[in-house]
């Protein structure tokens, strides 16, 4: 089978490997589709400190079940989540599941960009395999994980009905965040990005007003106009650009929240006036990754057509074109979400 892997700094390659066989409690999935996420691009650049496995938005059909697996059948269409918490440590007991020390140590093998991949028993046991409703297509399935991350973040910040939201960074995940916030009852939603392709996709659905992020003053005017000069209730930083964090902090209202949602560049720092943050009561809340509960809820919203995401997939490339897929995904003026397809895509 073909497998896409990191092959060196700035490089991904496709290798031939033997098909995996399932051990006890394990599930083998034949790949239909897997999105190329911003974190995959960061890993390829060598600027991501956690796992080096690529591909975590994978959907496909169950190809084989190991001894002891129940409740699934060969041929079932599924989403497979790559990380699961232990549900037993202090972080898990506090409900901070994605910060569980064992969370990012679990993973699909050899990753989501493989014609077949193994879902370890620990993932299967903890509910990482989600059967897909027939109303949820493969493209939508690849967006379950990023939308789950957005839902976990929105729960974390406690979005209140009618809240005004500013999304800084309108990549597919920033747009998903905006659309989900809309579904959950947000009021005015504004957004900013450098890419005109992304701004128009955001403006199509979910975002009420967009500005070019190149001009911070324009973004400020957008917010001032919409909020009578008060600032937004919630600013979401859905980009790795650290300047957006400071901009978000300056554009939330007194007592407002900045959600650190996009992966910050490794080694990036923030130079902020702490007294101003203190006196304005700005809350900064990071949110990393998602949980099985939120993934299931996002899937239910997709199945009920309460969340529309399909238009966010702009390109499909077969797995043997993985290097081209990464190239394309790193050009925000050309592509929204690039999806890599496998043998089960036509099914
Ligand atoms: Zn992702
Ligand atoms: Zn834990």
Characterization of the model:
By secondary structure, the chain is an alpha/beta fold. It has two domains: 2-143 and 309-346, Quinone Oxidoreductase, Chain A, domain 1; 150-286, Rossmann fold. Helix content is 30%, strand content 24%. It is built from twelve helices and 15 strands. It has helices at residues 38-45, 90-93, 121-125, 138-142, 144-157, 172-183, 196-204, 216-226, 243-251, 274-280, 292-303, 322-329; strands spanning 2-8, 11-16, 27-35, 58-65, 77-80, 116-119, 129-131, 165-168, 189-193, 209-212, 232-237, 252-260, 283-286, 313-318, 337-341. The protein starts with a strand and ends in a 6-residue tail after the last strand. 50% of the residues are buried. The model has no long low-confidence stretch (mean pLDDT 96). The chain binds zinc ion (2 copies).
Overview in brief:
With 347 residues, the chain is of the alpha/beta class.
List the helices and strands and how they pair.
Blueprint: E1 2-8, E2 11-16, E3 27-35, H1 38-45, E4 58-65, E5 77-80, H2 90-93, E6 116-119, H3 121-125, E7 129-131, H4 138-142, H5 144-157, E8 165-168, H6 172-183, E9 189-193, H7 196-204, E10 209-212, H8 216-226, E11 232-237, H9 243-251, E12 252-260, H10 274-280, E13 283-286, H11 292-303, E14 313-318, H12 322-329, E15 337-341
Helix pairs in contact: 5-6, 5-11
The structure holds zinc ion (ZN) (2 copies).
């Amino acid at each position: 089978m073909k497998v896409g892997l990191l092959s060196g700094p700035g490089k991904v390659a496709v290798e031939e490997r033997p098909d995996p066989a399932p051990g006890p409690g394990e599930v083998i999935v034949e790949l239909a589709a897997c999105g190329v996420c911003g974190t995959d691009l960061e890993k390829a650049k060598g600027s991501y400190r956690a796992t080096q496995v690529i591909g975590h938005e994978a959907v496909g059909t169950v190809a084989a079940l190991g001894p002891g697996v129940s409740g699934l059948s060969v041929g079932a269409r599924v989403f497979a989540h790559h990380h699961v918490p232990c549900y037993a440590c202090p972080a898990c007991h506090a409900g901070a599941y994605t910060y569980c020390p064992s969370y990012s140590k679990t993973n699909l093998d050899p990753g989501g960009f493989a014609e077949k991949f193994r879902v370890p028993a620990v993932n299967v046991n903890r509910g990482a395999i989600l059967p897909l409703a027939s109303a949820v297509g493969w493209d939508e399935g690849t967006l379950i994980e990023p939308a789950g991350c957005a839902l976990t973040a929105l729960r974390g910040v406690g979005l209140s009905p009618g809240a005004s939201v500013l999304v800084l960074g309108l990549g597919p995940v920033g747009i998903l965040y905006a659309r989900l916030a809309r579904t959950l009852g947000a009021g005015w939603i504004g957004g900013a990005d450098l890419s005109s392709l992304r701004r128009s996709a955001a403006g199509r659905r979910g975002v009420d007003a967009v500005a070019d992020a190149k001009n911070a003053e324009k973004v400020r005017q957008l917010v001032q106009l919409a909020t009578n000069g008060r600032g937004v209730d919630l600013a979401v930083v859905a980009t790795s650009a650290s300047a957006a964090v400071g901009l978000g902090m300056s554009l939330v209202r007194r007592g407002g929240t900045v959600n650190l949602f996009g992966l910050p560049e490794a080694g990036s720092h923030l130079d902020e006036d702490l007294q101003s943050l203190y006196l304005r009561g700005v809350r900064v809340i990071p949110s990393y990754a998602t949980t099985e509960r939120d993934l299931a809820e996002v899937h239910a919203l997709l199945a009920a057509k309460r969340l529309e995401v399909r238009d966010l997939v702009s390109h499909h490339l077969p797995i043997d074109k993985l290097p081209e897929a990464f190239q394309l995904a790193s050009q925000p003026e050309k592509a929204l979400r690039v999806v890599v397809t496998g043998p089960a895509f036509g099914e």
